[in-house]
Amino acid sequence: MDTKNTILSQKDLALLEAIVLKYGRVVTVAQIQAVIGEFGSNGAIRKRVAQMSKAGWLIRLKKGLYLVVTDISSLGFSDTSELVIAQALQNDSYVSFESALQHYSMFDQLLARIDSISVKVTKTYNVLQTTYSFLKIKDDLYFGYTEETLGNQKVKIAEKEKAILDMLYFRSTDYVITLTLEKLREYKDQFDFKKLKNYAAKYSLSMIRKVGFLLDQIGIDTSDLLSLSESSKKSHNKLTKTSDLYSTKWHLYYDSHLIG
Questions:
Q1: Residue 241 clears pLDDT 50, i.e. is over it
Q2: Where in the chain are all domains bearing CATH 1.10.10?
């Protein structure tokens, strides 16, 4: 991100620090104006906001929402948690997928996209070098998250079990199935499989079968899910779009190259 002016006066620095101290790094225009009003006349507020935004000290996230920068070394990128930014972009959402797993130290690759689950319309924002994706889910599947404080701001983050289910629900691809099995095996002692199965039971029959089949691969008892799966023996589902081998136990087509 290019900026035309990286010089910040002591007065403006004090102003930005006051905003951060009172409201955090992600703030609304109204919050900025509330603090600026303490430093100058109302007539100068809009001009001050425009000047600091043009210089890069206020980064526009979306209409009416800004990220505050107070360190010259961070101009052009954000030193604020991407999870905080995601929450601010859409309050009625929780961070999920790999981003949630990364929060629990279960995923260590650099992410160019932060995926969140929302009850609102599907939407995407591009902020600096990161894409923030919000995927709409049915109201009865909007659960399984906790609220944590990062910095001084609240962020809703999927529980690790719900993050796995969200990935399977929205993107049952080769990559997701492989990643899911890898994480379930690698962190087997950290997952609450009773919770995972109870959560899975709230989804469709297709999801129950997928989860049951995958848990079989890592030696987890799936008798409870199997009893739910057998409620409709005439139907069948696919693990991925290319699945061609059939599991009579789960009435599910799967891919041989994904299962060890």
A1: yes
A2: 10-74
Estimate the share of the chain in helix, then strand, then coil, as percent rounded to the nearest 5.
Answer: 45, 20, 35
User: Which run of H or E residues covers position 238?
Assistant: strand 237-238
3 band by pLDDT with thresholds 50, 70 and 90: very low
- Whether the CA torsion 227, 96, 156, 29 is positive or negative: it is negative
Is the CB of residue 97 less than 8 Å from the CB of residue 113? no
The arithmetic mean of pLDDT across residues 79-83, rounded, is 80
Q: Are 84 and 90 in contact (CB under 8 A)?
A: no
CB 141 within 8 A of CB 203: yes
- Residue 104 has φ and ψ, to the nearest 5°, of -90, 15
CATH of 10-74, one of 1.10.10, 1.10.3470, 1.20.1250, 1.20.1260: 1.10.10
CA–CA dist 191, 188 (Å, integer) = 6
pLDDT tens, residue by residue, 45-75 = 777 777 788 878 888 888 888 888 866 555 4
